[in-house]
Specification:
Structural class: mainly alpha
Distance between the termini: 40 Å
Length: about 130
């Protein structure tokens, strides 16, 4: 392992946990900013199941921050990106089908909960 890659892995994990802690405190803007700090570290990383799970988690968490602030449209943008990552694995011959399905389901589930929070429970049921 290359030292810079190991340090980036640790830093990415720390940002994810920090974002989760800030979100738990209701500090959604700060949580979102923290999650966003991870993306530059992932730019040069390859597409694979493990890293796309990391990307999916970030997009879902960012979407959740928007949902908790009452902005379903912005939340849905993030859920769509996360779901797309999973669908790319499902549709690509060399993709990781099992992980892809998991990513898509996590994004869809989050979208459904956000719809319920936005007063659109029936639409959320259709998503699931």
């Amino acid at each position: 392992l290359l030292p810079i890659r190991v340090s980036h892995l640790c830093l990415r994990s720390a940002y994810l946990h920090r974002g989760n802690a800030l979100a738990a405190l209701g500090r959604e803007d700060e949580a979102r900013e923290t999650y966003m700090k991870v993306f530059p570290m992932l730019e040069k990383e390859p597409r694979c199941g493990r890293l796309d799970w990391e990307r999916t988690s970030l997009y879902v968490n960012i979407g959740n921050t928007f949902s908790r602030q009452g902005d379903f449209a912005k939340a849905d943008e993030q859920y769509s990106i996360a779901e797309g990552l999973g669908r790319e694995h499902i549709e690509n011959a060399e993709g990781n089908k099992i992980d892809g399905m998991g990513m898509a389901i996590v994004a869809m589930r989050s979208r459904a909960f956000a719809l319920k929070k936005a007063g659109k429970e029936e639409d959320g049921k259709k998503v699931l």
